[in-house]
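retry 2 of 3: previous attempt timed out while embedding zinc ion. Reduced batch size to 1 and resubmitted. Inputs unchanged:
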Amino acid sequence: MKIEELLKDLDPVTIIEFKNYLLENLSKLCSTKNSNSKIINKFRKEENACKKCGNKLYKNGRTTNDIQKYICSKCKATSSETTNTIINHSKLSFEIWKNVIDNLINGFSLRRIAEENEISLLTSFRLRHKVLYALKHFIEDINLTGEIQSDEKYFSINLKGTKPKNMPRYSKKRTSTNSPYRGISHHKICVVSSIDENLLLKIVGLGRCTTDMLKNSLGQKITKAKSITTDSASAYQEFCKNNNLILNAIPSGFHSNDIYNISEINGIHSQLETWLSKFRGVSTRHLQEYLDWFVYIFTMKKRFMLNKIKTESYSNIIINNNYIKANDIFISKMPIDLNIAYAEYHYQS
Ligand SMILES: [Zn+2]
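retry 2 succeeded.
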């Protein structure tokens, strides 16, 4: 039933009372027990079919949390509405998940997210990482097709959240002189950043960007692209040759030559710095998730009006197959090899 129809015969006073009632009792009305299931259905876009064999699913009772269960008509595999979704095994209401996503889109701190939703700081941390993890599939689908501007951005290693016993300790035996990677560059994380209509921000490794790093990042993302404009030409020369791309090289230290420029990607870099600074140091372990979140917001702003970004996000993040166990958040892999980064240190990951 449409809400308008429901309210059309009510007088204004009752409507205001109704509104206040809703506001006061929102958490009760939208508790896990009675709302997650309905809301999931509202946002679910695809037909509900068996994930294993693709056949039709039959209803098969409900869980204690009132989540619809299914059984496959052919292979008899059982599943539920929340199987593989981010809210699988979650005792929190959809309302909280939704608010946390809104909060993240608004760039709130963990502490503020915890306060606004009356959840612990740890829960707030977990939800944030679950949401960030959930963007993986969305990000994987983004490709670059047109005239690309490309550059690199270098980040310092941040071991925030690493247990003291796992921190690298300086070792006299292995000094930088006998390390295979000399100079400061191997302490820096290289992120390839490229833009056309879409944006790519990808951790590619340690030290200066190489042709191989480009191949494994940008190379996986270009379909029908024509040209690349960049000021860091050496790695790009071979890359462009291998991919039949025209290379527009801007002299190092300039933002443009007479025809081409890299001002857009430079602009992205400064936006990214400002945005990341709000989080007061992002651990390297989670850096890619934050880069994905930045790309996500960038992409959604290009594709949708502001008021649609949130509802679209609920379906992108909550409904799609994005499940990760809370414990797996903590053991997520380092995107770089710390044994290389700390070659002159005693380090065992
Ligand atoms: Zn099946």
